[in-house]
What we know:
The chain is an alpha+beta fold. It is about 65% helix and about 15% strand.
Amino acid sequence: KIQEYNNCIFISIKMLSQSEKTNEISVENLSLVLTESVLISFQEKVGDVFEPVRERLRLNKRKIRSSGTDYLTFALLDIVIDNYIHIISILGDKIDDLEENFIMDPKKSVIKDINSYKRELNFFRKNITPAKEMLLALSKNDTELIKDKTDIHYKELIDNINQAIDSSNSYREVLSDQLNIYH
C-alpha cells in the first residue's frame, strides 16, 4: 500500500521470512513514513533483517549517509525484495531436489510434497503480488520526496520483484509437470 499526504508518503509492504528450524514462511507488515528529512519505520516483530543497512549507517558509508530519506527507503525496501528472491530460491532448490528424488524412487508421498510446495508458492505469490503493485505506484508517483537520482533505484526494485514473481511462476509449472510425470 502507498498513500501520499501533504508532507509525507506512507508505505506498507509485507516482509517474508523463513524459519531455519521449520522452513515455514511467515509474514509481517513493514510500514514506512517517508518525509523530506525523516524516515520512520514500524515492524511487527523484533528482528535483524535490516542489520546490513544499520551497519552501512554505522560505518558512515557515503552514499547512504548523503543521499537522503528517499535512498534510505530504497535501501530498506531492497532488503525486503532481496529476501523474497532468497525465499523463492530456497523453495526452488527443494522443488528441484524433489524432481530428482521422485524420478529415481517414485513414492506416494511425492504427491503430498508437490501439494505442500504448491501451497507455499501460492502463499508466497499472494503476499508479494501487492508489493509489486505498490512499487509500480511508488515509481510512477510524482512527488518531491523521491528525487530523480533515486528513482532509478526504485525501478531496480521492480525488476527484482518481477524476477521473484517469474521464478514462482516457473516453479509452479515445474510442480505441475512433476505431478503429470508422476501420474
